[in-house]
Hints:
This protein is of the alpha/beta class. The chain folds into two domains: 29-210, Ribosomal Protein S5, domain 2, CATH 3.30.230.10; 227-543, P-loop containing nucleotide triphosphate hydrolases (Rossmann fold), CATH 3.40.50. The protein contains 21 helices and 20 strands. A five-stranded parallel beta sheet has the order 13-16-19-12-20. The protein has a four-stranded mixed beta sheet with strand order 3-4-6-5. β17 and β18 form a beta hairpin. It starts with a strand and ends with a helix.
Amino acid sequence: MVNFQILINKSNYYDCKFVYPGFESGFFWGGAVIAKVNSCAVCGIDAMVVEVEVDISFGLPVFNMVGLAEIAVRESKERVRTAINNAGYTFPMDRVVINLAPADVKKEGTGLDLPVALGILAASGLIPRETFLPWLIAGELSLDGRIKPIKAVLPYALAARDNGFKGIIVPRENADEAAMVTDIEVLPVSHLSQVVDYFSGFIQIAPHRVDPKKLGSRSDFVISGDFADVRGQAHVKRALEIAAAGSHHVLMTGPPGSGKSMLAQRLAGILPLPAFGESMEIARIYSIMGLVGKNFDLLGVRPFRSPHHTISDAGMVGGGSKPVPGEISLAHHGVLFLDELPEFKKNVLEVLRQPMEDGQVTIARAGVNATYPCSFMLVGAMNPCPCGNFGNPLQECSCARPQIQRYRSKISGPLLDRIDIQIEVPQVSFGEMAGDNPSESSVAIRERVNNARKIQIRRFKKQGLLCNARMGSAYLKKVCLLEADAKVVLHQAMDRLGFSARSFNSILKVARTIADLACEKKICRQHVLEAVQYKNYGRNNVSAF
């Protein structure tokens, strides 16, 4: 039985009160009821709390939504109305206004469907409104009331933890992802009526828990293959080992079929396992893109991305009318492999220059600024010329000089200067292909890489760095201690080869990594010689044209 009371206050305003048995908290002040539900919206790779305010007042049936809602959010009005009716409840035939606060930030996605529906039902008096306050709620509604999975659940769960919420209510398919945040409760739900019954006190929902170390592995992270499968190319394997140990950028140049792509794919197998903090950063980016499935391994391997050369600059660095991460962010803490490097558009390659140094990229659009991390390791592969036979003693090059110049000019000097290791990958001989000599496995190489990376983590513990490649110029003199003969070699290289200041720093970082692999505290002469060799190869190639 519903009691309706009208009271006249001293100001001659009408105060109305609906009294539902067991729900005495539902009030209409001045003819209106306001219910509040907490949800989230994505901003970059982070999530911000959005307060969904629902107002139901007397008047003609109107359903308005304000607060800078994007198209997908505005379309939720029809989904919410139909879902409420098909779930067995009655949509109010009054004036309904939804405000998404803060109102000066754009909201996008379908995760606001469920909190809007619950706010309407709470403002109608079907659910006690105070029960929502400790929870952050997100989910997409289907027309029959089922709750469908959404993107960016991991940033939502982190926002719930950081803002002091008791827990988060998410679709059942997203429960594993949200449960990666262990300091909050995660309630998996599958239907609107289930959530209503829970907040009404009719049922209980057990919190979902998961052990991150027991999650399955993601197939699109893992690149199969072992360095033991690669015949010959011992010097290239050595260069890739150094690159993996210090997270240095690499460029491999060689004729077709010499094994450049094969070597790059196996590079992922010798990278050290990411720490938990790195894994969470990777997972947040993939969560925003909706690429985290039911079974995934956030702690197992690093991402390996290999975009096609037809990619646009927005696809590479991120962007769009609604900014989303690009390939460089999807390769965060992992490898970005660009095969056939000169075939990429020149503007696509040039936009890599700043992210390669900064480790992040900021996308600015009208009213929206999004910053995405992109601390990636660039691995490029290319032919020496369009036909691939330039410099091959066994086959004659059929390319004219202008063709070779146009081909190589797509890789600018500033971009080449930012690549620490440049190595030639020659054609493999018959003896190497047919020989029975076993090659060193990825497991053995990875053990040395792990030892070198542990040295770097201890070295940069106070600075928060993870590898030598991210070392700033301020730390070079402190970290890169040279022996007397090593200084002489570096001085001669600078004078005779005309290295730039950036190349000088690059040589020091690579030499430091080589010394770490040898467990040496100081950089010796042979370390500098090897580092100069990797930097000088690209310069000789360019000067040949």
